């Protein structure tokens, strides 16, 4: 079951494309937008993450850390980040534990791939509470960034 608004972020550990460990504890103290995506180098994932890249100034000015998470290897994510000139963190949930904890996982994706990250977005406040949650059925859809931005703006108002 997916996390819902008001839930505490579950304990998690991922490794980013720079080989640094990120945990639920390490993101506390700053709002974080976590974007789960199915696979690097695919059309919709590239479109989604490049749009975040192009809008990174909005997230930076709102003091929101952005982390993209997929079940790709950290080596694949490093190459994807480099090729697409992504200016935010990409992290690997290769063991598929974080996707499961967030309720953001396909039982079976295309070509029989099991446990792939389901496209979704979670805005976590500085205290570790979910302020926005969206888990998409179709991998062809992109999260509602207007709604995400509204949630980010409400963080600023309540700060």
Note down, in words, how this protein is organized.
The chain is of the alpha/beta class. It has one domain: 3-Layer(aba) Sandwich (Glutaredoxin). Helix content is 31%, strand content 22%. It contains five helices and seven strands. Strand 6 and strand 7 form a beta hairpin. The chain is globular, with a radius of gyration of 14 Å.
Average pLDDT, rounded to a whole number, is: 92
Give the total of domains.
1
Name the CATH class: Alpha Beta
Provide the low-confidence segments as ranges.
none
Largest sheet: 7 strands, mixed
Total number of beta strands:
7
The CATH homology group name:
Glutaredoxin
Order of helices and strands: EEEHHEHEHEEH
Query: At the third CATH level, what is the topology name?
Result: Glutaredoxin
Give the count of helical stretches.
5
Strand order of the largest sheet: 2-1-5-4-3-6-7
CATH architecture annotation: 3-Layer(aba) Sandwich
How much β-strand is present in the residues? 15-25%
Report the principal-axis shape: globular
Over all CA atoms, what is the radius of gyration?
A: 14 Å
Helix content: 25-40%
**Distance between termini?**
29 Å
Query: Which secondary-structure class do the elements indicate?
Result: alpha/beta
């Amino acid at each position: 079951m997916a996390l819902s608004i008001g839930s505490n972020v579950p304990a998690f550990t991922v490794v980013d494309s720079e080989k640094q460990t990120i945990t639920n504890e390490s993101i506390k103290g700053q709002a974080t937008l976590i974007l789960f995506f199915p696979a690097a180098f695919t059309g919709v994932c590239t479109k989604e993450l490049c749009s975040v890249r192009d809008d990174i100034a909005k997230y930076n000015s709102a003091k929101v850390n952005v982390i993209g998470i997929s079940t790709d290897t950290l080596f694949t994510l490093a190459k994807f980040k480099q090729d697409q000139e992504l200016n935010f963190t990409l992290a690997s949930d290769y063991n598929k534990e974080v996707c499961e904890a967030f309720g953001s996982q396909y039982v079976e994706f295309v070509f029989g791939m099991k446990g792939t990250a389901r496209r979704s977005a979670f805005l976590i406040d500085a205290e570790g509470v979910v302020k926005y949650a969206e888990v998409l059925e179709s991998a062809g859809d992109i999260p509602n960034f207007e709604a995400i931005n509204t949630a980010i703006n409400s963080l600023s108002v309540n700060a």
